[in-house]
């Protein structure tokens, strides 16, 4: 499942590779051979296997987004990420070991663990879940998509 542009959806429908499930309100699209409804949700005519798993790759932007751009230690605005267990001590680049962090806390913490600093985490780092993470392009959703996105989550 993915969110595609209106133009891409229309091309898939015009080439009989997809059918329109939900339509947008408004005027139809006039083609050279036919008139087409404006697609809001389409269904592909055949299954297209998406390579890879549904696992969300770990990125700096993803960690900041998951944590709401808030520091996991003090709660202020975060601009960097921090390894809870430092990399020099075997800490991995994983969703469970990375948190959003403000520059001040990141510099003070340095190469130590939160326990050594007597700090506690405001959030427990874990992989992100939900349709907004597993389906590309769902940051800005259309209310018509909600029943279909719920099935993907």
Automatic annotation (TrEMBL):
**Could you state a single Gene Ontology molecular function term?**
endonuclease activity
Q: Which CDD domains match?
A: HNHc (cd00085)
Q: Which InterPro entries match?
A: HNH (IPR002711), HNH_nuc (IPR003615), NA-targeting_endonuclease (IPR052892)
Q: Which stretches make up the HNH nuclease domain?
A: 58-107
Keywords linked to the UniProt accession: Endonuclease, Hydrolase, Nuclease
Does the entry feature the keyword Nuclease, yes or no? Answer: yes
Do the record's keywords include Iron? no
User: What is the recorded name of this protein?
Assistant: 5-methylcytosine-specific restriction endonuclease McrA
Q: State the organism named in the record.
A: Microbacterium invictum
């Amino acid at each position: 499942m993915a969110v595609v542009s209106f133009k891409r959806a229309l091309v898939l429908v015009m080439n009989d590779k997809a059918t329109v499930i939900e339509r947008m309100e408004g005027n139809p699209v006039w083609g050279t051979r036919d008139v087409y409804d404006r697609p809001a949700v389409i269904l592909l005519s055949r299954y297209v296997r998406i390579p890879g798993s549904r696992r969300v790759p770990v990125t700096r932007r993803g960690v900041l987004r998951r944590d709401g751009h808030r520091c996991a230690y003090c709660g202020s605005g975060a601009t960097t990420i921090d390894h809870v267990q430092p990399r020099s001590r075997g800490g991995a680049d994983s969703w469970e070991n990375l948190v959003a962090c403000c520059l001040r806390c990141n510099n003070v913490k340095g190469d130590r663990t939160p326990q050594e600093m007597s700090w506690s985490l405001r959030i427990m780092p874990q992989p992100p879940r939900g349709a907004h993470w597993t389906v590309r392009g769902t940051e800005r959703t259309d209310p018509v998509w909600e029943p279909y996105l719920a099935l993907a989550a």
